Amino acid sequence: MKIMITGFDPFGGEAVNPAYEAIRLLPDEIGGAQIVKMEVPTVFGKAGEVLKAGIREHQPDAVICVGQAGGRSGMSVEKVAINFQDARIADNEGNQPIDQVIEADGQTAYFATVPVKAMVANMRANGIPAFVSYTAGTFVCNELMYALLYLLDRSYPHIRGGFIHVPFAMEQTVDKPNGTPAMQLSAIAKGLEYSILAVIENQEDISLAMGTTH
Amino acid sequence: MKIMITGFDPFGGEAVNPAYEAIRLLPDEIGGAQIVKMEVPTVFGKAGEVLKAGIREHQPDAVICVGQAGGRSGMSVEKVAINFQDARIADNEGNQPIDQVIEADGQTAYFATVPVKAMVANMRANGIPAFVSYTAGTFVCNELMYALLYLLDRSYPHIRGGFIHVPFAMEQTVDKPNGTPAMQLSAIAKGLEYSILAVIENQEDISLAMGTTH
Amino acid sequence: MKIMITGFDPFGGEAVNPAYEAIRLLPDEIGGAQIVKMEVPTVFGKAGEVLKAGIREHQPDAVICVGQAGGRSGMSVEKVAINFQDARIADNEGNQPIDQVIEADGQTAYFATVPVKAMVANMRANGIPAFVSYTAGTFVCNELMYALLYLLDRSYPHIRGGFIHVPFAMEQTVDKPNGTPAMQLSAIAKGLEYSILAVIENQEDISLAMGTTH
Amino acid sequence: MKIMITGFDPFGGEAVNPAYEAIRLLPDEIGGAQIVKMEVPTVFGKAGEVLKAGIREHQPDAVICVGQAGGRSGMSVEKVAINFQDARIADNEGNQPIDQVIEADGQTAYFATVPVKAMVANMRANGIPAFVSYTAGTFVCNELMYALLYLLDRSYPHIRGGFIHVPFAMEQTVDKPNGTPAMQLSAIAKGLEYSILAVIENQEDISLAMGTTH
Prior knowledge:
Radius of gyration of chain A: 16 Å
Distance between the termini of chain A: 9 Å
Helix content of chain A: 25-40%
Oligomer: homotetramer
Strand order of the largest sheet of chain A: 2-3-1-4-9-5-8
Shape of chain A: globular
């Protein structure tokens, strides 16, 4: 089994992006599955293109994209991506789409096809604060999740797809307002690992449910 | 140099108290100073008695008491203890003083005599979210800090005293409302270590300022 | 023009529901439009049935459902309803669906067809804190919004539909944890009024966009 | 009976200060007591001087100073003022004292002499979110409260003194981050009124306790 996991490069004035920093801490094999790590640009459109090329090249069984959701207190596994982009700040190449659809012929929304609740449960069982989230926002994170699920729906129905938002890494909040929650990178990485394990453990049920046999 | 550091036992329904758990992770020597660790009961009056006996026995150069402030997002070094106890919940022996003074002949308040700002600055410089706090509450934490500073003021003017509140440990927040901030125990322990280093580094200035020569 | 506005009855142990209490404060005419007020039960399935009967009876030009989102600090106009119900607590008749779709043949999600941004902008321009929300949760609020948009999509494409979440009314937070945000009922009602005015002002553009002439 | 109530002028980039705006909404008589309203400058030192002149002129029975504590969710009645000023931002005349005492010969702290708990209880009984606060910060608010209590302690022991922090007024938060709590000015004013009533109702007990007969 092969699992691809992606993280964004830094944006919004931050020096690091805890998403990719945490991914770098992951081992190359988790629960018997090969882990393929990939950094994607925080740029509307391009993130999805890089992801698409990576999926074509690596042909993973599941894809988990990871992004930063500064201000959240725990790991949040996203349930839904919406066909809508509306950027409060510019991305890393200056794009700032307002009130636009992502794919004119796409569904209004797609649900994640990874086992969202099992991922949350496995993190919590291992002491990592985690919850299901029902909004990935309207910035590049949601756009990438939408691009992923749109792509899988059309071209790779046997590949599971999902998105995890991670809090600020602790170091990022030193100069932020008192009260801003954070997690240590090592805990974020652990959370990703427990999430991946849940994907692996639930893989068989998913395959059966889908009638696939890979 | 010898630094005593105390932590409370668990209270309020929590299985652990991150204060003492973090202290247990500290080495026995930090920056050349000997570290004396002590657990104190979360009981009005008794916490101070245990502390007093410990100070008499160990004759430290500085005392830092540590308690849990669930809901805070970073390490908070307390500036002031007030002569007031008012318990929203009972302590571990069922005491719940309401609207009472701690020491009838004590000052309205005492300021910490450890270098509060330097402790915060050293934690922040090392990536640990930290801030100065101007209230230690009205529960056993404030009462212990007050008891410490009252004692030092009267009997041990050459000993520095202070109090650090630590956030929930990450594991404690798994079942708490989404949004509850936390830190990993290892980060809390690191914060305590950087705080102690700041006390040591500022020891000479303090001694000079006080005209003491120990 | 006729605008129907609905509010839930109290739930979750609250004595009142600020949604319906605020609606009761609204005048019967706003900006030349007739306002039809309706209370709906906080019960999965039944809320939608009551709404459906009301729409059939009153044939409004737009429908705005209103619910309480305790913990939010301002008025939030929902952008999207998802085909998913997952109840953390039971509704007022003891139903607690977990991990279920709302309509087997419905879309994964529907976007509101009222002018969400204009409603937010008009509230803000008049001093009412407001923002666009991208999740109406997974309780009866989201279910009612979904039921509304599903119904309009199939049977009443000329009727605009949307959902507004309101904060706790101030009185509700007196015994809640310090820090819980709230608004006064009179301000919530004002917010609803400015939202309705934005719907009215944007009605023509919407009609043109849809090719309808009512 | 005569009660003086003061509010600061705007600071920190805000166009209004809800403290004084709310005071302006108060009637000139509350519960049979004459209300003397006074605006004070948000300037270290000067605020206290203006207050001192006002007390000399009006000879009130009680003085309540009011300030803004942006970010708090309810009315907070301050218990204690500390002999410490440490300004994160400059005051309205550019002063920014760091790490300084307010009065070299003053106590480390003074407790409010108004009935703090009764004031909170009366607000809550009337639907206004309120709580006791144990820190008035280290800016001009704390400095004025300290100056007031220092003055009363030395020169007017028969006059009660206290301080109330109020949240942002609702209009102030429209452009602030989502989640910033606020209250309407009318509710803030109501809160002040219920606080004043509690001061009046508890006046006799206080006088007896002090052995005064005015």
